[in-house]
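User: Fold this one for me? It's GM11450.
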Amino acid sequence: MPGRKKNHHKNNNNNRARHQRGGQQSKDKQEQQEKEQSTSPTEEKELPYRVEHSDIYGRYLVANRQLEAGETLIREEPLAIGPCVSGDPVCLGCYQPVSLQPDQYRCPGCAWPIPDPEQFALIARMESHTEERRQNAVLWRHYEEKVVQRLRGTWQLEDLEAEQVHEIGQIGVKVRTLYPSAFLLAHDCTPNTAHTDDPRSFEILLRTSRRVREREALTLSYAYTLQGTLKRRAFMHEGKLFWCCCRRCSDPRELGTDCSALVCATCRTGSVRAVDPLQQTGDWACDRCAHKMGATEVERQLDRINNDLEDIDVHDIPGLENFLLRYRDVLRPNHYLLLSAKYSLCQIYGRTEGYLLPQMTPEDIARKESYCREFLEIVDVLDPGLTRLRGLIMYELHAPVMVLTQSAFQSGQISRQEFQRRLKEVVNLLQVSRDILLMEPEGSTENAMGQAAADALSKMGC
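Assistant: Here's what I get for GM11450.
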């Protein structure tokens, strides 16, 4: 303590010494920051990125050189793993759900919480839609190999019948992880990187999703692509403690997609958008008349419509189609809530009993194609390049294009030249979806679809 007082006294009474020391401390601090933010010449040549600093981002990563789409940036395992704050109780070893209530049924041998036999019997009597799932050969084979065989083989649970495993299914939970380098990527609502997570080791693999210019910031998105600006910014402020001001968030038209625009309730022809999207509580106004809405009113309306969407069963095709009809005069065609319904329809048309591809009418098949194309047009703007969402929708699009092309050619509606042109499109859709989805972790549904795309190309001789 005496030493501290002496130094304090000197700082108060020797301006020259104080300025010299202050200058040296500032210089030392700057040199230390530069040391932290830089790498050795050898490392700089090896790494595709380097760390820089700004008052807005803090530390962030920029490209060391021009990077092509698909280049690996970071591959690393987490420093720490743990359950989400808002999540249910989970096992801290495998992160599967557990209940720690006093009246929870426990194993007679070790007292670990497990399902009560009576409760399990109730679950077993529930409808599992096994026969409907069996119709999807790709997913059925995927679960057979990655779940059934693992439980009955690797885990030596031979007493379980294969049908039982298919009916019980898998239970997924969310966990949070901390990574030593990946945390340095800045956020952007139209990012230039994509990532995959290994479900076993939790290793993260970050790669470029499109071409990145030298010195361009490397970015990922903390928010869900299929949400409007009002919801995305609120989500990031609540969870990440900042208000996003990226190009997409700053643009009332969201880069021309109009993902948040409403139909004007007054003139019925105009579009209602946020006057200044960066003002979270600011007014929304029609571009054709004087009609205005407050942000709170807009949010209430969106919450009500979202609740209607959430109430529809995920496999209910008529329900989703009715949702689109009900709100087509309320929301603009590219509104994110309509896009969410269309995305679901893109996936379940051709995969749901009564709407399997051989059962679908030409009108239903054309509708699936239309939804896929509409969705892909938006994804090409908001989530372009080698991204999971784009790979999935391109895979879904290839089937209706192929079926309708074959039907049109066989009935003489198109020429051989047009037939060949459309086949080239099918091949391109399969090739791109294969290249994207095979980058997903082995054992994932996306990877299985990538393999299915590769198999289809092989059968076509490509």
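One thing worth pointing out: Residues 15-37 form the longest helix (23 residues).
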